[in-house]
Amino acid sequence: MKAPTPGGRGLTTRLKTAKGRSTASQKWLERQLNDPYVRAAQAQGLRSRAAFKLIELDDRFHLLKRGARVVDLGAAPGGWTQVAVQRCGAKVVALDLLAMDPVAGATVLQGDFQDPEAEQAVLAALDGQADLVLSDMAPNTTGHNATDHLRIIGLAELALDFALRVLAPGGGFVAKVFQGGTEKALLDTLKRSFATVRHGKPPASRKDSAELYVVATGFRGAPPA
């Protein structure tokens, strides 16, 4: 799996008709048709263009090691799971509230990661603790930046809480946040729990998107309550 290199001049594809579509819908469809990551995902059999975000994060931070046990939270439709399986070749568990089509080489579970039973099912599927917990989850946006920022930070905090319970020593954690700075409480917990904490915006993230990823490695254990 290889990420495309955007920037070529290429031909622009436009919709032949806008009949029955709103202006916003037409613009979204045209953006999809002209997105090199969308085309590359289709060509490589990946379920979403988001798969390239993980590919680019891994190329930069070297997260997906052969033999690593990986948990993908909020995994549907499965693009990140596909990348994790291809690069780790070991035990990969995908968990989502929504039903998700099987991914060859991965265990796909349906449930809420905050549910203790779902957590135990993940650990049972891994046959041990995780080496890496991934979260590309994001809440539905409201258009109000401050509200959206608080919502995604809250979701990242829940994902981190899960990671602190299931990670093996030396493990890693990746979660989506929004630009504007990771909240101090979340960042403090990360810095106490991991040897290294960094931020990254992969090229596959659209330029007009506020998304950013926090990448923590070298798990040292959960801080005291």
Quick tags:
2 domains, 21% strand, seven-stranded mixed β-sheet, globular, S-adenosyl-L-methionine, 225 residues, Rossmann fold, 7 strands
> Please, what is the CATH homologous superfamily of the largest domain?
Vaccinia Virus protein VP39
Kindly, what is the distance between the CA atoms of the first and last residues, rounded to a whole number of angstroms?
41 Å
Largest sheet: 7 strands, mixed
Q: What pattern of helices and strands is seen along the backbone? A: HHHEHEEHEHEHEE
Number of domains: 2
Estimate the helix proportion, in percent.
Answer: 25-40%
* Proportion of residues in extended strands: 15-25%
CATH architecture heading of the largest domain? 3-Layer(aba) Sandwich
- Average pLDDT level: 86
The chain-level structural class is alpha/beta
CATH fold annotation of the largest domain: Rossmann fold
CATH top level label of the largest domain: Alpha Beta
Radius of gyration, taken over Cα atoms and rounded to an integer in Å: 18 Å
* Number of discrete helical segments: 7
Strands of the largest sheet, in order across it? 3-2-1-4-5-7-6
